[in-house]
Amino acid sequence: MKAQRIADLYSDYLLASFGATTATGLSDLLEGEVSHDQVTRYLAGTKKTASDLWRTVKPLVREVQAEAGVLIIDDSIEEKPYTDENAIICWHYDHSKDRLLKGINFLTALYNSRGVSVPVGFHLVAKTETYTDPKTQQEKRRSPVSKNAVGQELIKQAVRNRIPFRFVLFDGWFASAETMLFIKHKQHRDFICPLKTNRKVALSKADKQQGRYVRVDTLELEAQARREIYLEGVDFPLVLVKQVFTNEDGSVGIRYLVCSDTTLSFDDVTTTYHKRWGVECYHKSLKQNVSLAKSPTQTVTTQTNHFFAALCGFIKLERLKMKTQLNHFTLKSKLYLNALHSAFATLRALTPVQGSA
Prior knowledge:
Layout: H1 3-16, H2 23-29, H3 36-43, H4 50-64, E1 70-79, E2 90-94, E3 99-113, E4 116-124, E5 129-132, E6 139-142, H5 147-160, E7 167-170, H6 177-186, E8 190-195, E9 200-202, H7 205-209, E10 214-215, E11 226-231, E12 238-246, E13 252-259, H8 266-273, H9 277-289, H10 300-324, H11 328-350
Helix pairs in contact: 1-10, 2-3, 4-10, 5-6, 9-10
């Protein structure tokens, strides 16, 4: 059986499964159509890359692409607390939880266009270098490449693959001056991102030239107002907007967004940046609907190829969403209900009728 056929069956298996996903499990499910060894060889074969992902997702991208599309850069961690540590299964700082987690830290370039979101590039953080922490004297791992550098490479790949998009969207962790300059000057695209409250801005070009900067959170800026500013380290003007919102717990939050297209209104900036929410939905679906964390793979290659298969499963779910107008979780619930019906029918067929001989 060709490797592509096994890859297709394996990603289907990840979609249909509700428990641990193993080579033996797939072989048993298909009743010998594919052997345990064939699945194992596929997972241990050539390590999949972003180029393989692009070949897989390219037809769908060409189907939905539009000049108004956006490219979202973000990272997430899938916890794997009981898996042996290696270069990609190791300790990573999770800024959303403010603590270290053991697992896979992955970066994604997610393309959003016409209501469809698909990954067009990915990178698994590999901490291949070791060093001694000067404070604790403990040996730790680190990646030789920064996340901002990886994010820039993902953007470059999307441009090189001729994916049309107007804006790059990302959170404050990727909002370095270097990344902003890279997007505007080298990739000729615009961006929208939040600023941390301690970032320094100048209120005019003259202030910038004379080095007069103030913290962004000290500005007297009304809610829903916009202002042209100059960010320290960035040689072109940005439009700054102050977004005030209410959190789930009732507290009031403030977000300072900057955009490199200074013609946009407050509503334009905030409405466009809201599309970044799609990456949170992507992370949630990838972790819960395509068995990302349910593989017992132990090596960097097999873990990478399992991750790639999970991405393929997500793409299949997105195609099904387009066809049925049902979201990923509703589709997965339908699979679960059908599996439950089948199990229940099998159980009733195997159970003797009470009172029979």
